[in-house]
Amino acid sequence: MAQGKRISTDISGEALAAIHELGAAARAARLRAGESQSHAAQRLGVHVQTIARVESGEAGVAVGHVLGLLALYGVAVRTLARPGQEPAATTDLPAP
User: Fold this and answer.
1) 53: Cβ–Cβ under 8 A, 6 or more apart, which residues?
2) Which of 9, 34, 52, 84 is deepest in the core (most CB within 10 A)?
């Protein structure tokens, strides 16, 4: 298996949905900023394929790349909730 693409087989459907949501939020924020994936990759210091993997919601992408791309466009993920609990506050994720 290629490096960077290993994911746990125990990852829940809810977790995978959250990963896809983060990717969609990153893509939406980048498009609102009028930037290409290439420009985002240059600004973040990663390969353009990494941006594509983040935006497609690929579970094997490093969390630092995901959060870095979101932060690049001012999208903050501030509150997490445990399964079965409501978050204490909402996140700053834009609607997809």
Assistant:
1) 60, 61
2) 52
How far apart (Å, rounded) are the C-alpha atoms in residues 65 and 23?
A: 11
Type of residue numbered 9: T
Record the pTM. 0.75
